[in-house]
Amino acid sequence: MLTFRWSVNLARALRILPQSTSIAQEAEERFLIVNLTPHLGDSIMMMPMIESLRKAHPQSRIECAVEASIAPLLREMPIVDCVYALRLGNIPPITRALVTHRILRIAQYYRQQMRCSAPTTCVMPRWGDDLFRSNILGYLTGARRRIGFASDVSAAQQHPLPYRDALLTELIHGGRGVHEPEKFCLLLREAGLIPNANSGEASTQVIASLQHIADKTDWPNLAERVGVDRNLPFAVVAPGASMPKRQWPIEYWAEVMADLRAKDMKVVVLTGAPDANLAKQLHELSGGWATLVAGKTSVVESVALISHAKMFFGNDSGPGHIAGALGVPTFILFIAEENCDPDGPSAPERIHPIGPHVVFCRPAKCLPPCVSCCEAEEAHCIKTILPSDVIESTSRKRTSDGFVTTMTGRTGREIEHTA
């Protein structure tokens, strides 16, 4: 509580920074969306909200402030007018000294990049894990409307955090246990910024902006550079993840790849630079017959490559969100057990990929001592999902298009949510 109090008081002191809003600008609706988490998947789940906002306000200016690693992708969205890239780091600070340092960095980036942004409405869609960064930046802009979820919107947060909520002008309640894209759109609906939409639309649609990014990339040149034969159908296997406990063993992935090969499906092993060694190990373990694309593509190029895949397999990570949102049949592995808290950090109910053809596999039950969600440092509970579970899910998917499907490891029980 003292940390929150300190962060708000410091933000209020920094509010003396010159504001660029003029009377003429106030007459024009200008939106700023702030999402300062560094994860690719979180940003993709924000895209339906941005598309809905643009559809409702076709003439308004829409800007985004995001972590620098995410900025290149959002800058390719034709419906976004400006993207500000901030380098704030991955881990929220928890001591007063670290809080002070982080807030001063936010103020520095605001002063260097954003003093001319002058939004009339600032939207902070994140909740729970973004305790103060986005709200402080929104507060510094001086926007007359600063909209975000109340701090107690999650069942895990038993008491409100008034010093964080004080930075907002409008606190939105509700949305517990809701898929993240739907939750973000709920925020805009409750604020009166977009009309009511069909339930589930944000979770199951193909994201037009992402498809636009894929289509504008020179696919023939990219395919030749990375060694993909454009004339043959291929599946993408992405073995990487941001945390070791989310990485399914490469021995298991090798079995899935062998099954795909037996069905005459080519395979592309795809990772970014941080997971390149893991991809190389899988490539060698599987006999070297697949096409290895490890650290060779930018995020935008990965979007184009994945868009041409017939199937996608991966852990809970950014590439899976790309595949699902492009309408590619997508199979993702999660580490939270069945009946876990739907608002939990790894709950597939909250963070599974957007898209009409998504299957996610999860443990039927976590392994001791983990409860509800894997708490180990290395791969642990995810090992209860067997290669046969994933292979079986691909067969079921071929006969059940149009569903987001849950497969639980070992039990084989299936839950279908109509898309």
Summarize the structure.
By secondary structure, the protein is of the alpha/beta class. The chain contains 17 helices and 14 strands. Helix 3 packs parallel to helix 8 (180-190).
Question: Keywords for this structure?
Answer:
419 residues; alpha/beta; Rossmann fold; 2 domains; 17 helices; 14 strands; disordered C terminus
Note down, in words, how this protein is organized.
This protein is of the alpha/beta class and 419 residues long. The protein folds into two domains: 2-205, Glycogen Phosphorylase B (Rossmann fold), CATH 3.40.50.2000; 209-418, 3-Layer(aba) Sandwich (Rossmann fold), CATH 3.40.50.2000. Helix content is 38%, strand content 17%. The chain has helices at 2-14, 23-26, 40-56, 71-74, 96-114, 133-141, 162-165, 180-190, 201-204, 208-216, 219-226, 250-262, 276-285, 299-307, 318-325, 348-351, 387-398, and strands at residues 30-35, 61-67, 82-86, 121-124, 145-149, 170-172, 234-238, 266-271, 291-294, 311-315, 330-333, 358-362, 403-408, 414-418. An eight-stranded mixed β-sheet has the order 9-8-7-10-11-12-13-14, with helices on both faces. It has a six-stranded parallel β-sheet with strand order 3-2-1-4-5-6, with helices on both faces. Helix 13 links the parallel strand 8 and strand 9. Helix 1 packs parallel to helix 5 (96-114) and helix 3 (40-56) packs parallel to helix 8. The longest helix is centred in the N-terminal third of the chain and has 19 residues, at 96-114. It is globular. InterPro entries: Glyco_trans_9, LPS_LOS_Heptosyltrfase. Its EC number is 2.4.-.-. It is an enzyme of class 2 (transferase). This is Glycosyltransferase family 9 protein. GO terms for molecular function: ADP-heptose-lipopolysaccharide heptosyltransferase activity.
